[in-house]
Amino acid sequence: MNVILPPPIGHVHITLEDDETLHVLHSKAIISYQGSPLGREDRLMDIGGVYRKKKWIRTRLQGPSSFLLGLPAGFSMESIDIPTESNLLFDFRHVIFFSEGMNFRSKVLKLKTAWITKEFIRIKFSGPGKLGIITVGDIVTLQLDPITPLFVDTSALVAYPEDASIRLSVYGNSLASQHMNVQWELCGTGPVLVQTGSRDRQLENRLTEDGWIKRLLRKVLPFGSVYIK
Description:
Layout: E1 2-4, E2 11-16, E3 21-24, E4 30-35, E5 40-44, H1 47-53, E6 57-62, E7 65-70, E8 75-82, E9 88-90, E10 95-99, E11 103-108, H2 111-117, E12 121-126, E13 129-136, E14 139-143, E15 150-153, E16 157-161, E17 165-169, H3 174-179, E18 183-187, E19 191-195, H4 201-208, H5 212-220, H6 224-227
Antiparallel strand pairs: 1-2, 2-7, 3-6, 3-10, 4-7, 5-6, 8-13, 9-12, 9-16, 10-13, 11-12, 14-19, 15-18, 16-19, 17-18
């Protein structure tokens, strides 16, 4: 399978060889397809898939073929190789496709954790195969340490090792802990996948909105809206 990630975020071009088959979990994201019409087969999700993805249909695509996946604005996608003995637990919402032959099972999180994070289940995939992960912004791989904890915003944690020590926490002094989002505190060994899209709405608003001085000058000066950008 060949995955072409373009410089601009917005779409992904995937090519399948004769013996390759892919399951796409967001069928409407397929914006173009080139290959035999019989190479696409839509199927009903099982009950678990419907609950986790809030989708009723998944698409099975068989090679030789190629297709484009459209991505929402500000999102990116990465193809990850999953070995036979992978122990990563994924947030299923980030999975957009997986190659045929892969197995996966669910792990139910603790009720207290699920209540705070609104996340009840993590998914463990077993390969070999490829997994398509869609994220807000880019995806970064960080390494855990057995002693020094890694703190990750609960909305940014895409995957972590099954045997990692993980709990809900905050950090820093009292002022920091009172004003930050809830964090995952992780210790152990192995990789952690984190999406990097900013969740700071105040930062986004400050970077995009005009200052009050500019808005005032546009209104009071003749032709202010023309000359003041």
